[in-house]
Amino acid sequence: MRALTWHGKHNVQIDTVPDPQIVNPRDAIIKITATAICGSDLHLYDSVIPGMSNGDILGHEFMGEVVEIGRGNTSLKVGQKVVVPFTISCGSCFFCGKQQYSACDNSNPADKSDASEIAYGYPMAGIFGYSHLTGGYAGGQAEYARVPYSDIGPIVVPDGIEDERVLFLSDIFPTGWMAAENAEIEPGDTVAIWGCGPVGLFAIKSARLMGAGRIIAIDHHPRRLELAKQNGAEVLNYHEVKVREALTEMTAGIGPDACIDAVGMEAHGFAPDNFIDAVKQETKLGTDRQHVLRECIMACRKGGRVSVPGVYGGIGDKLPIGAFMQKGLTIRTGQTHVQKYLPQLLEMIMDGKIDTTDLISHRLPLEQAPEAYRNFHSNQNEWTKVVLKPH
Q1: What is the pairing mode between strands 87-88 and 126-127?
Q2: Number of domain units in the chain
Q3: pLDDT band at 136, cuts 50/70/90?
Q4: How far apart are CA 148 and CA 112, in angstroms?
Q5: How far is 253 from 2, CA to CA, in rounded Å?
């Protein structure tokens, strides 16, 4: 089959690789009908997430048709259309029992889990196409994919519904929803959201559905800011204003009730701390550029909440821990417990409560994925979300 493979920093290629096979009884093989490039894929493209190997198949946002199932899978049938969560979860461990699916204890193979245990204290769950820290699983930017624990993960979607309406249930819609949920939004709250990429835009949509009174979106790309405005947000261009001062003025000196960092470890901008982080990242003296997280902590009102869906992968410094403690902030973060949210969010799509397609800017065949990565990385104003069609 044809698949997009990683070959080093800014080097991805379409290669012919072996077709996936059933390995375990709960596996399924999916013929992929739609897959997308995620903003967190760019961390792999920029080679700032460790644990990648030459030839790894990328992609964790995908859906398709079930073409084969293992003998232990009684929940799926050949021919069904499914959306596959990016997190791989067994459904029976301590964490899955608490619906903390992205903390699954069994999906990261024993021969892979030591690395993440060293890095993070405990082994991480498996994730499709996202380094050997998370299991080294082949991703979904391909013609076919093997889905482990497929009786727990994929959600069957109704016949006749267009792929693009449900594709983002694989990651960015649940991630934006969990980001807003972690912000503990109360009716009338003012919510500030850094980053108007796909996750930030879904956080805006979700915060609005949860009853936020004001949503203030921060970015610098004009098209992304316009999409934020179309979804009901006021906008700040951080090239034109000092963000923290603007937020203080907009909230009568109080600050936002909740701040959401939808940027993560590769923050941009001309702040002095970001220059230092960028140098450290480039010279391997550091891993994460945390300017946005610092700004969230400083901007949030006393007693407020900080939610962090943006991906961080290593070690950072210069966090304003004093402000975090003295202001009595609550911070919540983590990879998304996708399976927990799927039934509710699918129902919202079916009921027409949310438009999941307005952020799509480009639709391309899988063979053009390397070009799509280059543009999604370097032309983020025009390339807001890319959907790839393998067949």
Answers
A1: antiparallel
A2: 2
A3: very high
A4: 15
A5: 55
Q: What is the CATH number of the domain that holds 67?
A: 3.90.180.10
Number of H helices, E strands in the chain: 13, 17
Tell me, yes or no, if the pTM score tops 0.90: yes
Domain that holds residue 117: 2-171+336-389
DSSP-assigned beta bridge partners for residue 28: 69, 147
CB 59 within 8 A of CB 41: yes
Token duo for residue 72? 């232990």
pLDDT at 274: 58
- Residue range 303-307: average pLDDT? 98
Are residue 184 and residue 106 in the same domain, yes or no?
A: no
CA distance 192 to 147: 36
- Pair of tokens at residue 204: 């805006």
Strands 28-37 and 144-147: antiparallel
State whether 65 and 120 are in the same domain: yes
**Which residue type sits at 376?**
F
pLDDT at 275: 46
pLDDT digits (tens, 9 = 90+) for 262-301: 998 766 665 666 545 565 566 665 667 788 999 999 999 9
- Judge if 356 and 307 occupy the same domain: no
What tokens appear for 178 in the block? Answer: 């969990």
Tally Cβ neighbours within 10 Å of residue 157: 22
CB 362 within 8 A of CB 387: yes
For 263, the token pair is 């940027």
Q: Are residues 329 and 223 in the same domain?
A: yes
The label of the residue with tokens 């980001």 reads 179
Whole-angstrom Cα distance, residue 91 to residue 43? Answer: 28
